[in-house]
Design a protein that fits this description.
By secondary structure, this protein is an alpha+beta fold. It has one helix and nine strands. 16% of the residues lie in helices and 59% in strands. β1 and β2 form a beta hairpin.
Length: 128
């Protein structure tokens, strides 16, 4: 009988734990919307593009403006993690830019991949 009581008690504890875990809040994406002044550092030099981001839920859109012109941006925000990309055209042809990093308040930082050619770091501040 004592074994049945223990098993019943453990089942209740497990059921409450599963229910509590299912009710745990999902972390909302941080706001990445706005105009961002970026600083990009790669082996090819330093760039200072501007990023205009819009956000709907966890989806990002917008415009990337840099040395080689403008390009549409698409990406996501998951918690504080940002991941967005744009395709730019330059003297060496079209290049896919991929930014991955973190947003915290009015700052953003992380890494950038320039197609298959090069990578680097970026940081940015949201403009008023």
């Amino acid at each position: 009988m004592a074994v049945l009581i223990r098993v019943g008690f453990l089942c209740m504890v497990w059921a409450f734990a599963v229910e509590a875990d299912a009710a745990a809040p999902v972390e909302e994406p941080r706001s990445a919307a706005g105009t961002w002044a970026l600083r990009v550092e790669t082996s090819m030099g330093v760039g200072t593009p501007t990023l205009l981001l819009t956000q709907e839920g966890s989806n990002l859109g917008g415009i990337y403006r840099g040395h080689f012109g403008e390009a549409p941006v698409k990406g996501t925000v998951t918690g504080d993690a940002v991941d967005f990309s744009a395709r730019i055209s330059g003297p060496m042809g079209a290049t896919d830019l991929r930014y991955t990093g973190r947003v915290s308040g009015d700052t953003m930082s992380g890494s950038i991949q320039l197609g298959k050619r090069d990578g680097g770091r970026f940081s940015g501040e949201r403009q008023p």
